Amino acid sequence: MRFRDGHATLGGLAAIVLWSLTVGVARRIIEPLGPLTACAATYLAGGAIGCALLLSRARTRAGMARLPRRYLVGCGALFVGYTLCLYLAIGLAAGRNEVFVVGLINYLWPGLTLVLSLPVLGCRGRWSLPVGLLLALVGVALATWPARGAGFGAVVSDLGANAWAYALALMAAVAWAMYSNLARRWAGRSEGDAVALFVLAAGVLAATLSFWRGETANWSASVAAGVALMALGPALTAYLLWDRAVRRGNLTLVASAAYLTPLLSTAITSAALGALPGAGVWVGCVLVVVGAMVCKVSVRPEPRTGEGPRQQVGS
Predict the structure, then answer these.
(1) pLDDT-based confidence at 13, cuts 50/70/90?
(2) CA 19, CA 99: separation in Å to the nearest integer?
(3) For 148, left (φ over 0), alpha (ψ -120 to 50), or beta?
C-alpha cells in the first residue's frame, strides 16, 4: 500500500520514538554479548522477519526489482556502515557515562542531514541555519552529557580513552545523514522497499566479523528479550518508517524533529543504565526544540534539474 506524504512523515516521527531505545538497550545487550554479536543477533532477526514479509508478496518483490541499483548498492553500504559504526562505538565506550557522549555525537546526524540536503538535494539554506544548528547542538550537549565537574585535563584524558568510540560515532552520524539524503535522491517515490535487505546485510556482516574476532557471548532470558525488542523495534520497524519518510515525506520536518531523539534517549538510557540525567536536560530540552524550529524554517526546497525526478525536501 502506497504511503501518502503525511503518513510517511508521521511514520518518520514514530521512527524517532523507536530509535530512542537504541543507545540504552543496545549497551545492555552489548555488555554480555559483545558489540558485533549483539549487532548480528539483532539485525539477523529483524532482517529475516523483514525479508520474509517482503518476499511473501509479489507486488513488493516486483517493486524491489525496480529499485535503482545505485540506491541498492550505495544506500545499502551506508546503512551497513552506519549500523556497525554505531554498535562498535557504543561497545567501545570506556564506561556507561561515556555512552551518553557517544549518543551525543551520533545525534549530530539530524543537523548533518539538513546541511547535506543543500548540496545533495539542491535545497536552499538561510543565514539562520547555522544558528539553529548551534542551538540544537548545545541543547543536545546539555541534555546528554553527564553532569560532572571536570577540568581540561580530565576532558583530554576522556577523549584519549574513548577516541575510537567517538570517531566511530561521528562516522555513524555522517553515514546516516548521507543515507537519508541519497535515499531520497536515488529512490525518491519508488514503490520498492529494500530496507529489510539492508538490515539483513548488516546482520550477516556483523555475524561474520563476530566469528572472525571470536567474541564470547553470555546469553540469558533478559538478554534475549533485549535482542527481540531491538530487532522488532529500532532495527526493523523504525528503519522501514524512516526510509519511507525521507523518500516521500517532509524531510525537513522529520530531520528537525529528530533533534528530540536525544531527550527521549537520555531518559531511556538513564533508566536502562542506572545513570540519572542532570538538570541540564531541561535546559537542553528548550534549546533543542528552539533549534529544531529554527532549522525547519531555515531550509527551503530547491527543485533539481538533471537526472531523476525532482525532489521536495520541505513544504
Answers:
(1) confident
(2) 15
(3) beta
